[in-house]
Amino acid sequence: MRIVKIYEQSKNNILENLLQRSPSQYEEYSDRVNAILSDVRTKKDEALFNYTKRFDGCELTQDTIRVSESEIEEAYTVVDTSLLDVIRKAIVNIRNYHEKQKQYSWFDSTPEGTILGQKVTALESVGVYVPGGKAAYPSSVLMCVIPAKVAGVERIVMVTPPGKDGKVNPNTLVAAKEAGVTEVYKVGGAQAIGALAYGTESIKKVCKIVGPGNIYVALAKKAVFGYVSIDSIAGPSEILVLADETANPRFVAADLLSQAEHDELASAILVTTSKELAEKVSEEVEGFVKVLSRKEIIQQSLDNYGYILLADTMDEAIEVANEIASEHLEIITKDPFNTMTKIRNAGAIFLGSYSSEPLGDYFAGPNHVLPTNGTAKFFSPLSVDDYIKKSSIISYSREALEPIHKDIIKFATEEQLTAHANSIAVRFEK
């Protein structure tokens, strides 16, 4: 991996390079995505079937687009029983973590006759996109579905690309069943997002779409926002390891490559104050790349977006970490908890040598659907909050309104909204 000394220009160059990975930088795909969405909106199922045949090589009909109970039962017969056991253990951890995020309605009343409050309501329906393609991700099913179940969403629809044989990956199907998905459809890409947003003869529209996907999925979610809600527009995966001389270079190298293997646009960055650690990590990375199964993808990711950044001080290293605002941030320092208190921007923070990023991907409990491309400066991980909406509650008696009604009339009159003022005034006409 390239080792770069941190100075203002190098930092700016790296940030600019990383931002090129954002879905917002791929507007040349927008026309194709918009054409697909327009087709789905007007031709509905016909468009879904055509695009699935074209992109996935699979013939679908209204009778086969939805995964049947028998197909789910068949999936259970081929899934490794030890994997099923792990999925069930992970579900317990994920559910327990997200149950602590639940919000409840509340009401405050006063003797004067006012009641103010907030009513929390689960969304009626949610669409969950689960990628196919280079790899199947049953873990993403759990992370998207379980918070929705905890929130109380009644209809959870999963869409995922089928294989040429018309089947869905059995691990994905079993994860969906275990997590509580109510409907599964064999459709992927921008056309699946269109179906969830607009509805077709086979797929009823939903209120919100969540889940990661490729550039077509990301741009499609961006385009349908407003017809439905979305979680975020996710970019390629990324990891930043913040380490000092106490870190184990072999551990650090392994952790960096855990994200580099996702795809060629993934980013893996080490920020350290130790030149010795930097050089040892670079050596370990070279050794790992030679033996790992996805070495071509890993190498291209490292060539494009892999860096080892040398800082003079830990404060400078922390400043860089906050500026990059990585999706995953590992802190491997003498006192990682103290270092963590200085971090403002990160999707998920992993503390200490034995809290490697895959722990969060699969098992610990916190959500692995995280803000990318610097959006951790203003976005949060997927949570129960994403599956609820809130309504304000206001109730005043005449006795409570009377002493303040002239204040409201004054405010409305100053804004030249006389009908607003009149709405209050008529209640105190003599």
Automatic annotation (TrEMBL):
Record-listed Zn(2+) binding positions: Q259, H262, D361, H420
GO biological process, alphabetically ordered: L-histidine biosynthetic process
InterPro entries (alphabetical): Ald_DH/histidinol_DH, Histidinol_DH_CS, Histidinol_DH_monofunct, Hstdl_DH
Binding site for substrate: S237, Q259, H262, H328, D361, E415, H420
Domain of life: Bacteria
Keywords: Amino-acid biosynthesis, Histidine biosynthesis, Metal-binding, NAD, Oxidoreductase, Zinc
Enzyme Commission number, as recorded: 1.1.1.23
Catalytic activity field: L-histidinol + 2 NAD(+) + H2O = L-histidine + 2 NADH + 3 H(+)
Binding residue positions for NAD(+): Y129, Q191, N214
GO molecular function annotations of the record: histidinol dehydrogenase activity; NAD binding; zinc ion binding
Active site, renumbered: E327 (proton acceptor), H328 (proton acceptor)
UniProt-listed PROSITE patterns: HISOL_DEHYDROGENASE
Matches recorded under PANTHER family: HISTIDINE BIOSYNTHESIS TRIFUNCTIONAL PROTEIN, HISTIDINOL DEHYDROGENASE HDH
Record function comment: Catalyzes the sequential NAD-dependent oxidations of L-histidinol to L-histidinaldehyde and then to L-histidine.
Name of the protein in its database record: Histidinol dehydrogenase
Lineage of producing organism: Bacteria, Bacillati, Bacillota, Clostridia, Lachnospirales
Originating gene: hisD
